[in-house]
Structures are given as structure tokens and as C-alpha cells.
């Protein structure tokens, strides 16, 4: 169960998620599985960049399944994978439910110099108001993505960067790939995937976010907590 | 001369500022004066958080004033102060000219544990979309400011925090000061000052920013670069 992006208010518990399982698993093992499951899911979503100070993810296990105990280490890999699948689904549902969201956007960074830089690149793109308003307008404005990468504080060489909107290459080695019309068609869809290939190393990170719409401003400027 | 916040597009030179003086001053001394002058001015403004990769501030001196040469060190203090005054005025004009801006907001952080944390606190508040939409709505929503402080990664104790909108105390030691109506009147003005007293140390930072309006979204979602 998860609730999320419609109540990002400071005096309320905001993003809340609860997992319930009848698996037989010790608290510590469950905790570790949960940490692994949230890393690329609940910790990889952004709606308005305002991290709440009250976010909570909890997992409960009552052991009533009757199955064998799930042991720590390799034995927990299958369970952790399933927990991760559910976490990913819930986390993405929170983004789709984001305030004023009209598009669901995946930012997929590949080839960064490190994992940390891949995450930083994804977060910088996803938190850019210029990028998010371009998504709202259905505008294949790759220049704003390049600019976000340029100020992200990561190692990069613009001449090596490839960018794809869906399957359409829009930037090849830092230059316009000449697919404006096809890219515009991709950007008008409800779900958009943006892939950036930095060609600097092996760092990868996926993150899910929304556009920035008139409705976001309306909701957050006119309601009084 | 400065131009700014209406052309934050990735393939254009964006924030540009030029200083011209007939003072007699060596290039190195002028460069140092300029660095000092931009620190609390051009480097303390935010409109939409999207730092351009093309911002430029240049100073030119032709020495035609006929006055004595302005020497490095203490001798340059007066000149640097004047340069700073002009820089502050220009920087604030850029913010007032910000895309879609309806309000000019000063964020004044005092009593942070360090200068660095004061700056971080100011930047976190000024880049919060929740805070900026509240400014647009003229909403004295101090909870959003507290939440931004809470996630800023600074040392703080909520029970010590005081917040003022203009001269009106809205938070006293972390709690509502009961001045809702007076605070709302302040927030409806074109220029709003927000002062945060953290009571943790001597770190101070001032920053100038705008609200986040419908027009910002309109401008940036509908124009095509």
C-alpha cells in the first residue's frame, strides 16, 4: 500500500508505503531486503524535488505462510527481487499520481563515469524546471537536457553524448540527430523515456519523474494548509 | 549592463553582465574586485534553479578618469564596494525580470552553524517549488520553509527556529506565532522579505529569488528554441 504525491504538505505524513507478507523472515533480513528494494524504486522517484521530512516505508512479516524461513544472504535474493518488483510498481504509481502530472517520464542514464555521477545526472535532469516544462509542452528540447548535464557537476564530454527520446535518437555525439518530427511525436505520449549515453564509464541510473504543469502551480499556490 | 532571466535557453548566451569604468586599475586588481563583488550578488540570485552553462560577468577599465591608480589590497576596498553596489542592483533587476515572476523575494538566513550552511539553507528554500508556489499564491505557508530547512542537510534544531515575513514573526522557537492575518498581508506585496533565524552559530546568507507562477510554466512549455 502506498500513498503519495498529492499531499506533500509539511505537517502531514506524506509519502507512506507499507508492505505486508506472510513469509517467514527475521526482522533483520527483512530490513535488509527492504533497503535493497527501495534503493532503485522509492529512492529513484521525483515529483517536485521537495523531499518530505516525513517519508516512511515499512515492511511487516507475520510468518504465517507455512513455508521455510527466508534466510539472510543469497537465500533472500528471490524474496528481495519480488519485494523490489512491488516497490517499483508502487513507486511509479506515486509518480503517475503526482500533483498536476500529465506525463510520466523515465530518465535512463548510461555510461556515466560512476554510479554516483549517473544518479546525479538523472536527478539534475529530473529536477530542472526548464526540462519539466518542456515535457509538459511535449517539446523535444534536448538542449535543456544537455544544459542540465552541463551543470550537474559530473565528468562529461559533450561531443560524446547521445540522447534518445523513446527509440528516436535526437542527439548523436553532441549534435542534433535531425529527427525533430519523430521526436516530437514521442514527446506527446503519456509516457516518455529519455535515455542518455555519456560514454564515460559504466555508471547507470534510472529515475522516474513527471512534467511541470499549470495544474501543479494551481494546486500548490491556491490550497491552504 | 546586464541581461538575464528572459532567455534562459541552452544554446544562447544567457545571463550576461558588463561593467565599464574609467578608473585606473590593473587587470588583476580589477579581477579580484569583481570576484568579491559578484559573490553576494550575481552568485546569490535564483530564478528557476537552472544555472546556465553560459553565464558571463566581465569588467573593463580604460584608466581615463585621470585619478590615481587603484592599488590592490585595502586601497581597492572603496572601489570594490562601489562595484558591489552596482552588481547588487543589476543582479536584483535580473531577478525582478525573471520569467513569469510576480514577486521579488529576499531570503535572509541568520545564525546558521556556518557560512556554507547558511548558503545551503537559502538555496534550498529558494529552489523549493512548494515554497515558490506559496509565494505566488501570497500564502504565508511557513511550514514549507521549515520543511525545506529540514531537508537542506544543515545542522538545525526546529525548536530554535524563528521565521519572519517582513517584520511579522510567523514562527517563534519552531511554533506558529499566531500572526496569520498580518503575515498574509505581507505576502501579498510585490516585494517580500523572509528572515530565518536558526540560532546555531554566526553563518549568514542573503539570496534573491522569485515566485513560481502560471506564466513561468506557460513561457517555458510553449516556446520552442
Give your account of this protein's structure:
- Two copies of one chain form a homodimer.
- With 225 residues, chain A is α+β, with helices and mostly antiparallel strands.
- The first copy, chain A, is 35% helix and 22% strand.
- The first copy, chain A, is built from seven helices and nine strands, in the order E-E-H-E-H-E-H-H-H-E-E-E-H-E-E-H.
- In chain A, 47% of the residues are buried.
- About 3% of the residues of chain A have low confidence.
User: What count of helical segments of chain A does DSSP give?
Assistant: 7
General form of chain A: globular
Q: Distance between the terminal alpha carbons of chain A, to the nearest Å? A: 25 Å
How many distinct beta strands of chain A? 9
Multimer state = homodimer
By secondary-structure content and strand pairing, the structural class of chain A works out as alpha+beta
β-sheet strand percentage of chain A: 15-25%
Strand count, sense and barrel status of the largest sheet of chain A are:
6 strands, mixed
Fold blueprint:
2 copies of one chain form a homodimer.
Chain A: E1 2-3, E2 16-21, H1 27-39, E3 56-61, H2 77-96, E4 104-112, H3 115-126, H4 129-136, H5 142-150, E5 162-165, E6 168-172, E7 175-176, H6 180-187, E8 191-197, E9 203-210, H7 214-222
Parallel strand pairs in A: 2-3, 4-8
Antiparallel strand pairs in A: 1-2, 4-9, 5-6, 5-8, 6-7
Note the main attributes of this structure:
7 helices, 225 residues, 6-stranded mixed β-sheet, homodimer, alpha+beta
Provide a brief overview of the structure.
Two copies of one chain form a homodimer. The first copy, chain A, is an alpha+beta fold. The first copy, chain A, has helices at residues 27-39, 77-96, 115-126, 129-136, 142-150, 180-187, 214-222, and strands spanning 2-3, 16-21, 56-61, 104-112, 162-165, 168-172, 175-176, 191-197, 203-210.
Amino acid at each position: 500500500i502506498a500513498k503519495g504525491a498529492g499531499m506533500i504538505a509539511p505537517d502531514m505524513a506524506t509519502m507512506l508505503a507499507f508492505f505486508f507478507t506472510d513469509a517467514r523472515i527475521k526482522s533483520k533480513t527483512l530490513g535488509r531486503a527492504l533497503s535493497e528494494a527501495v534503493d532503485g524504486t522509492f529512492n529513484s522517484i521525483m515529483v517536485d524535488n521537495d523531499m518530505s521530512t516525513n517519508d516512511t516505508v515499512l515492511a511487516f512479516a507475520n510468518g504465517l505462510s507455512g513455508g521455510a524461513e527466508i534466510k539472510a544472504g543469497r537465500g533472500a535474493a528471490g524474496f528481495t527481487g519480488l519485494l523490489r518488483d512491488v516497490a517499483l510498481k508502487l513507486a511509479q504509481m506515486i509518480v503517475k499520481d503526482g500533483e498536476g502530472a500529465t506525463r510520466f517520464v523515465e530518465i535512463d542514464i548510461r555510461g556515466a563515469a560512476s554510479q554516483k555521477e549517473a544518479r546525479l545526472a538523472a536527478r539534475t535532469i529530473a529536477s530542472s524546471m526548464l526540462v519539466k516544462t518542456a515535457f509538459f509542452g511535449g517539446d523535444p528540447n534536448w538542449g535543456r537536457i544537455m544544459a542540465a548535464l552541463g551543470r550537474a557537476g559530473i565528468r562529461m564530454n559533450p561531443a560524446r553524448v547521445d540522447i534518445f527520446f523513446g527509440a528516436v535518437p535526437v542527439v548523436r555525439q553532441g549534435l542534433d540527430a535531425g529527427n525533430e518530427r519523430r521526436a516530437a511525436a514521442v514527446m506527446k505520449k503519456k509516457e516518455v523515456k529519455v535515455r542518455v549515453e555519456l560514454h564515460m564509464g559504466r555508471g547507470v541510473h534510472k529515475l522516474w519523474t513527471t512534467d511541470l504543469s499549470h495544474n501543479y502551480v494551481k494546486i500548490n499556490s491556491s490550497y491552504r494548509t
